[in-house]
Amino acid sequence: MLGTFPVTNSFLIAFLVSFGLIVVTRFVVQRKELIPRGLQNIFELIVEGLLLFIESVTEDKAQARKYFPLIATIFLFVLFSNWVGLLPGMGTIGLAHSVDGHTTIVPFLRSTSADLNFTLALSLMVVLTIQFTGIATLGLFGYGKKFFVSPLHKPYVLGTVVGLLELVSEFAKFLSFSFRLFGNIFAGEILLIVMLHLVPYFIPLPFLFLEVFVGFIQAAVFAMLTLVFLKMATLPAEH
Q: Could you give the residue ranges of the DSSP H alpha helices within 31-60?
C-alpha cells in the first residue's frame, strides 16, 4: 500500500514494463545516429514495421501517423506485459494463503494481462478513445447517424434495427476486448503452473514457447482491432 493506494502484484509489473519501455526509448533517441547500429537497428525496425502496418490498414499516411503513438504503445505494452509473465518465478513464488482448508499461493509478481482489472481498464480506455475519435472527426450528429436513423430515411425500420445492432456492438467491444486478452493469458498462466507441478523438467518447454507465441498474437490482435475500429469510427454513416 502507498497511503490508501493499493499496489498489486500485476500493477507492479505494469509499472516496471512501462518504466523499461520509457528508459529504452529515451536511451535510443538520445543516442541515435545517422547510420543506425545495435539497439537503434532493432528500434527502427519495430517502428517502421508498425508504421507500415498502420498505413496498410488506414490507407492514409497522415491518419497512420496520427494513430501510431496509441497503436504502438498498446502493442508494445501488452506484448512485454505478456512476455514478462513467462519469466521464472512469475506466478509461482509468493506467500501461502489458506482458504477453507485449501492452501494456495499468492504470487509476488504476475502478468498484468492475467489481471481482469487491467484488461477492463485498458479496454475502457480504447473504447472511449474510439468513440471520441469518431465524434471529433464526424461531429456529434454525423457520428450519431450510425446508430439513429432519421424517419425520412428509407428503409427506416431496417435502418433503425441495424443502427441498434451497431449501438450494441459498441458496448460489446468493451467486453470482447477485456475477456479475450484476459482469458488467453490467464489460461496460459494456469497451464504452465499445472505442467510445472506435474512434470517440472523439459515437458513444459513446448508449452512455454506456445505461450510466447500466444502473447505476441494477443498483443497484435488487441492493437489491430483498436486500429480497425478507429478507422471505422471515422467513416461517415453512408459508408
A: 39-58
Grid coordinates belonging to 97: 494463503
Q: Is the pTM of this model over 0.85?
A: no
pLDDT single digits (tens) 143-170: 777 777 665 555 656 666 776 777 787 7
User: What are the C-alpha distances in Å from 56 to residues 47, 127, 133, 148, 229?
Assistant: 14, 22, 19, 31, 14
Cα–Cα distance, 24 to 104 (Å, whole number) = 37
pLDDT at residue 151, rounded to an integer: 56
* Amino acid (one-letter) located at 52: L
Q: Where are the domains of the chain?
A: 9-233
Grid cell of 231 as nine digits:
478507422
Fill in the DSSP letter of residue 28.
Answer: H
Hey, what's the cell of 235? Answer: 467513416
- 84 membership: H or E segment, kind and range: helix 61-84
Q: What is the distance, to the nearest Å, from the Cα of residue 98 to the centroid of all Cα atoms in its chain?
A: 33
Write the pLDDT tens digit of every residue in 80-101.
Answer: 888 887 777 666 666 666 666 6
Q: Amino acid identity of 145?
A: K
Over the stretch 16-25, which tens digit does the pLDDT of each residue have? 888 988 998 8
